[in-house]
Design a protein that fits this description.
- By secondary structure, this protein is α/β, with parallel strands linked by helices.
- It is 27% helix and 28% strand.
- An 8-stranded mixed sheet has the order 4-3-2-5-1-6-8-7, sandwiched between helices.
């Protein structure tokens, strides 16, 4: 059985939009304004190497599929060879190596994927998909790399949710230029009061 692991670059005010600068957001590339340091880089490399599959929303998938096939190195090799699943109601064919389109009911498709795929199924970016996964208790671990910046605008990871969700801080550390790595797991205490 697989575990859904969400990993996000996030500003202090919860913005996850365009940390890499490929989406024409007015503050695009904001994560590159800070050094993650050797420990932060190692965290991201280890995360990639430990992943058994990727689960992505269409927009993130298309950005990754455009960028990663032409790159080389451990990180790129892992991304390019591992199984990738893209959730989309508009994409009919996924051309990036080892990619499968999941269409239809997202909750059913991801629940089935968790049953069929062993190991860590890692979700990068994909804010709308992540919100759906959180709402339906499908996230087993949430990894936030929080950068010391307030952007004031942009797509946020946490907006209106279907219900209260309790989380337990499993690990935290600070790397590089004050970048906080926060790892959360569901606490089981999400019953509404």
């Amino acid at each position: 059985m697989g575990r859904i692991v969400v990993t996000e670059f996030m500003s202090l005010d919860g913005v996850v939009e365009d940390p890499g600068g490929a989406e024409a957001f007015k503050y695009g590339g904001w994560s590159f304004e800070f050094e993650r340091g050797d420990d932060g880089d190692k965290f991201k490399l280890d995360e990639a190497l430990d992943a058994d599959a990727l689960l992505l929303g269409r927009v993130t998938y298309e950005g990754f599929a455009d960028a990663w096939p032409s790159r080389e190195g451990e990180f790129a090799d892992k991304f390019n060879t591992m199984p990738k699943y893209v959730v989309s109601s508009t994409l009919t064919e996924a051309e990036w190596n080892n990619s499968t389109v999941l269409d239809g009911d997202v909750v059913k498709q991801v629940s089935k994927l968790k049953q069929e795929q062993d190991g860590e199924i890692v979700v990068h970016g994909s804010a709308r998909l992540v919100q759906t996964l959180l709402d339906h208790d499908l996230v087993d671990e949430l990894r936030l790399m929080v950068f010391p910046v307030v952007l004031g605008a942009g797509k946020r990871l946490f907006g209106d949710t279907a219900d209260k969700k309790g989380l337990r801080l499993a690990d935290s550390r600070t790397v590089g230029d004050g970048v906080a790595i926060l790892i959360y797991e569901p606490s089981g205490s999400d019953q509404a009061a």
